[in-house]
Amino acid sequence: MQSHKNRLENEPAFVLHSYPFRETSLLIEIFSRQHGRIPLVARGARRPKSAVRGLLMSFQPLLLSWFGKHEVRTLHGAEWQGGQPLLQGTALLCGFYLNELLLNLMVRDDPHEQLFDYYQHTLQQLAKGTDLAATLRCFEKHLLQELGYALLLEREAESDRPIDAAADYQYIVEHGAARAEAGRGDGLQISGKTLLDIAADDYRDPQSARQGKQLMRMLLNHHLGGRVLHTRELIKDLTKL
After folding, report:
1. CATH top-level class for 4-80?
2. Which terminus, N or C, of the chain has the lesser number of Cβ atoms within 10 Å?
Protein backbone atom coordinates (compact mmCIF):
# COMPACT_ATOMS: atom_id res chain seq x y z
CA MET A 1 0.00 0.00 0.00
CA GLN A 2 1.40 3.40 -0.96
CA SER A 3 2.08 5.97 1.74
CA HIS A 4 0.06 9.20 1.61
CA LYS A 5 3.02 11.28 0.45
CA ASN A 6 3.43 9.06 -2.60
CA ARG A 7 -0.24 9.27 -3.56
CA LEU A 8 -1.74 12.32 -5.22
CA GLU A 9 -5.41 12.90 -5.86
CA ASN A 10 -7.25 15.05 -8.39
CA GLU A 11 -4.34 17.08 -9.74
CA PRO A 12 -5.17 19.46 -12.64
CA ALA A 13 -3.23 18.17 -15.65
CA PHE A 14 -3.00 17.83 -19.41
CA VAL A 15 -1.70 14.88 -21.43
CA LEU A 16 1.26 15.97 -23.54
CA HIS A 17 1.92 12.65 -25.27
CA SER A 18 1.05 8.97 -24.97
CA TYR A 19 2.81 5.78 -26.06
CA PRO A 20 1.57 2.17 -26.21
CA PHE A 21 3.06 0.24 -23.30
CA ARG A 22 3.07 -3.54 -23.21
CA GLU A 23 -0.10 -5.21 -24.45
CA THR A 24 -2.89 -3.15 -22.92
CA SER A 25 -1.38 -0.12 -21.22
CA LEU A 26 -0.28 3.41 -22.07
CA LEU A 27 2.73 5.40 -20.98
CA ILE A 28 1.69 9.06 -20.81
CA GLU A 29 3.65 12.25 -20.29
CA ILE A 30 1.54 14.79 -18.43
CA PHE A 31 1.87 18.45 -17.50
CA SER A 32 0.40 18.86 -14.02
CA ARG A 33 -0.16 22.23 -12.41
CA GLN A 34 1.52 21.57 -9.06
CA HIS A 35 4.09 18.92 -10.02
CA GLY A 36 5.19 19.77 -13.54
CA ARG A 37 5.96 17.22 -16.21
CA ILE A 38 5.56 13.62 -15.02
CA PRO A 39 5.51 10.20 -16.74
CA LEU A 40 2.65 7.91 -15.75
CA VAL A 41 1.73 4.37 -16.71
CA ALA A 42 -1.98 3.90 -17.30
CA ARG A 43 -2.44 0.18 -16.79
CA GLY A 44 -5.06 -1.44 -18.99
CA ALA A 45 -5.93 1.90 -20.63
CA ARG A 46 -6.00 0.33 -24.11
CA ARG A 47 -8.58 -2.30 -23.17
CA PRO A 48 -11.99 -1.69 -24.82
CA LYS A 49 -13.77 -1.43 -21.46
CA SER A 50 -11.16 0.72 -19.70
CA ALA A 51 -12.68 3.56 -17.67
CA VAL A 52 -9.94 5.97 -18.80
CA ARG A 53 -9.63 4.86 -22.43
CA GLY A 54 -11.51 7.86 -23.86
CA LEU A 55 -10.28 10.40 -21.32
CA LEU A 56 -6.52 10.49 -21.85
CA MET A 57 -6.56 12.86 -24.81
CA SER A 58 -4.27 15.82 -25.41
CA PHE A 59 -5.59 19.37 -24.94
CA GLN A 60 -8.39 18.41 -22.56
CA PRO A 61 -8.30 19.56 -18.90
CA LEU A 62 -8.22 16.59 -16.55
CA LEU A 63 -8.04 15.79 -12.87
CA LEU A 64 -5.56 12.94 -12.52
CA SER A 65 -4.66 10.78 -9.54
CA TRP A 66 -1.52 8.67 -9.26
CA PHE A 67 0.81 6.95 -6.85
CA GLY A 68 4.41 5.81 -6.75
CA LYS A 69 7.84 7.02 -5.68
CA HIS A 70 9.87 6.06 -8.76
CA GLU A 71 10.35 8.14 -11.89
CA VAL A 72 7.38 6.53 -13.66
CA ARG A 73 4.30 6.61 -11.44
CA THR A 74 1.02 4.73 -11.80
CA LEU A 75 -2.23 6.41 -12.80
CA HIS A 76 -5.23 5.29 -10.76
CA GLY A 77 -7.89 7.84 -11.65
CA ALA A 78 -8.87 10.35 -14.32
CA GLU A 79 -11.75 12.80 -14.53
CA TRP A 80 -12.55 15.04 -17.49
CA GLN A 81 -13.12 18.69 -16.58
CA GLY A 82 -14.56 20.02 -19.82
CA GLY A 83 -14.65 23.63 -20.96
CA GLN A 84 -11.99 23.32 -23.67
CA PRO A 85 -13.25 23.25 -27.28
CA LEU A 86 -11.60 20.65 -29.50
CA LEU A 87 -8.72 21.95 -31.58
CA GLN A 88 -9.13 21.47 -35.31
CA GLY A 89 -7.09 21.96 -38.46
CA THR A 90 -4.07 24.23 -38.14
CA ALA A 91 -4.95 25.01 -34.53
CA LEU A 92 -4.55 21.30 -33.74
CA LEU A 93 -1.07 21.31 -35.27
CA CYS A 94 -0.25 24.36 -33.18
CA GLY A 95 -1.37 22.49 -30.06
CA PHE A 96 0.95 19.59 -30.86
CA TYR A 97 3.73 22.14 -31.37
CA LEU A 98 3.14 23.53 -27.86
CA ASN A 99 3.28 20.02 -26.43
CA GLU A 100 6.50 19.22 -28.26
CA LEU A 101 8.07 22.40 -26.91
CA LEU A 102 7.10 21.43 -23.35
CA LEU A 103 8.39 17.88 -23.78
CA ASN A 104 11.74 19.10 -25.05
CA LEU A 105 12.35 22.08 -22.78
CA MET A 106 10.77 21.17 -19.44
CA VAL A 107 12.60 18.89 -17.06
CA ARG A 108 10.54 16.35 -15.15
CA ASP A 109 9.20 17.03 -11.66
CA ASP A 110 9.75 20.79 -11.94
CA PRO A 111 6.51 22.68 -11.14
CA HIS A 112 5.56 25.73 -13.21
CA GLU A 113 2.09 26.75 -12.08
CA GLN A 114 2.01 30.05 -14.01
CA LEU A 115 3.17 28.29 -17.17
CA PHE A 116 0.43 25.68 -16.69
CA ASP A 117 -2.17 28.43 -16.46
CA TYR A 118 -0.76 30.18 -19.53
CA TYR A 119 -0.73 26.90 -21.47
CA GLN A 120 -4.42 26.43 -20.67
CA HIS A 121 -5.13 30.01 -21.74
CA THR A 122 -3.21 29.45 -24.98
CA LEU A 123 -5.26 26.35 -25.82
CA GLN A 124 -8.40 28.44 -25.43
CA GLN A 125 -6.96 31.09 -27.75
CA LEU A 126 -6.02 28.46 -30.34
CA ALA A 127 -9.57 27.11 -30.26
CA LYS A 128 -10.84 30.57 -31.26
CA GLY A 129 -8.68 30.35 -34.38
CA THR A 130 -7.79 34.05 -34.53
CA ASP A 131 -4.18 35.08 -35.25
CA LEU A 132 -2.60 31.73 -34.51
CA ALA A 133 0.90 33.07 -35.24
CA ALA A 134 0.60 35.78 -32.57
CA THR A 135 -0.76 33.21 -30.12
CA LEU A 136 2.30 31.00 -30.70
CA ARG A 137 4.72 33.93 -30.28
CA CYS A 138 3.13 34.89 -26.98
CA PHE A 139 3.38 31.33 -25.68
CA GLU A 140 7.00 30.95 -26.83
CA LYS A 141 7.99 34.12 -24.97
CA HIS A 142 6.19 33.14 -21.78
CA LEU A 143 7.62 29.62 -21.94
CA LEU A 144 11.18 30.92 -22.15
CA GLN A 145 10.56 33.36 -19.31
CA GLU A 146 9.01 30.74 -17.02
CA LEU A 147 11.90 28.34 -17.65
CA GLY A 148 14.44 30.97 -16.62
CA TYR A 149 15.45 32.24 -20.07
CA ALA A 150 13.96 35.71 -19.72
CA LEU A 151 14.14 37.92 -22.79
CA LEU A 152 15.66 41.39 -22.40
CA LEU A 153 13.25 43.42 -24.51
CA GLU A 154 12.84 46.85 -22.95
CA ARG A 155 16.41 47.90 -22.09
CA GLU A 156 19.70 47.79 -23.97
CA ALA A 157 22.04 45.05 -22.76
CA GLU A 158 25.24 47.08 -22.61
CA SER A 159 24.07 50.52 -21.47
CA ASP A 160 20.80 49.61 -19.69
CA ARG A 161 19.17 52.50 -21.53
CA PRO A 162 15.51 52.09 -22.54
CA ILE A 163 15.04 50.54 -25.97
CA ASP A 164 14.49 53.24 -28.60
CA ALA A 165 11.59 52.33 -30.88
CA ALA A 166 13.22 54.25 -33.73
CA ALA A 167 16.64 52.58 -33.43
CA ASP A 168 17.99 49.36 -34.94
CA TYR A 169 19.48 46.63 -32.76
CA GLN A 170 21.12 43.24 -32.87
CA TYR A 171 19.75 40.70 -30.44
CA ILE A 172 22.47 38.38 -29.15
CA VAL A 173 21.58 35.08 -27.46
CA GLU A 174 22.13 35.13 -23.67
CA HIS A 175 23.12 38.79 -23.90
CA GLY A 176 20.24 40.88 -25.19
CA ALA A 177 19.81 43.80 -27.56
CA ALA A 178 22.78 45.93 -28.55
CA ARG A 179 22.80 48.91 -30.86
CA ALA A 180 23.41 47.81 -34.43
CA GLU A 181 26.98 48.47 -35.52
CA ALA A 182 28.43 48.43 -39.01
CA GLY A 183 30.06 45.10 -39.78
CA ARG A 184 28.82 43.40 -36.60
CA GLY A 185 27.10 40.14 -37.47
CA ASP A 186 26.86 38.13 -34.23
CA GLY A 187 23.16 38.67 -33.61
CA LEU A 188 19.73 38.98 -35.17
CA GLN A 189 18.97 42.36 -36.71
CA ILE A 190 15.79 43.67 -35.16
CA SER A 191 14.09 47.03 -34.72
CA GLY A 192 13.52 48.71 -31.40
CA LYS A 193 9.81 48.88 -32.15
CA THR A 194 9.70 45.11 -32.63
CA LEU A 195 11.40 44.54 -29.26
CA LEU A 196 8.86 46.76 -27.52
CA ASP A 197 5.98 45.12 -29.38
CA ILE A 198 7.18 41.66 -28.31
CA ALA A 199 7.40 42.87 -24.71
CA ALA A 200 3.75 43.97 -25.01
CA ASP A 201 2.65 40.78 -26.84
CA ASP A 202 1.59 43.00 -29.76
CA TYR A 203 2.12 41.52 -33.23
CA ARG A 204 -0.23 43.69 -35.29
CA ASP A 205 2.68 45.33 -37.13
CA PRO A 206 3.78 43.00 -39.99
CA GLN A 207 7.45 43.78 -39.31
CA SER A 208 7.05 42.95 -35.62
CA ALA A 209 5.32 39.68 -36.56
CA ARG A 210 8.11 38.73 -38.97
CA GLN A 211 11.02 39.75 -36.74
CA GLY A 212 9.32 38.32 -33.65
CA LYS A 213 9.11 34.96 -35.36
CA GLN A 214 12.80 35.16 -36.31
CA LEU A 215 13.81 36.05 -32.75
CA MET A 216 11.81 33.22 -31.18
CA ARG A 217 13.21 30.73 -33.69
CA MET A 218 16.77 31.79 -32.85
CA LEU A 219 16.24 31.59 -29.09
CA LEU A 220 14.33 28.31 -29.16
CA ASN A 221 16.88 26.68 -31.45
CA HIS A 222 19.61 27.71 -29.03
CA HIS A 223 17.88 26.20 -26.01
CA LEU A 224 16.82 23.07 -27.90
CA GLY A 225 20.48 22.36 -28.60
CA GLY A 226 19.98 20.96 -32.08
CA ARG A 227 16.84 18.94 -31.38
CA VAL A 228 14.35 19.20 -34.25
CA LEU A 229 10.69 19.92 -33.53
CA HIS A 230 8.78 17.75 -35.99
CA THR A 231 5.51 19.62 -35.59
CA ARG A 232 7.23 22.92 -36.34
CA GLU A 233 8.60 21.51 -39.58
CA LEU A 234 5.12 20.27 -40.51
CA ILE A 235 3.51 23.62 -39.73
CA LYS A 236 6.21 25.38 -41.74
CA ASP A 237 5.40 23.20 -44.73
CA LEU A 238 1.67 23.94 -44.51
CA THR A 239 1.54 27.54 -43.31
CA LYS A 240 3.64 30.56 -42.52
CA LEU A 241 3.14 30.51 -38.73
Report:
1. mainly beta
2. N
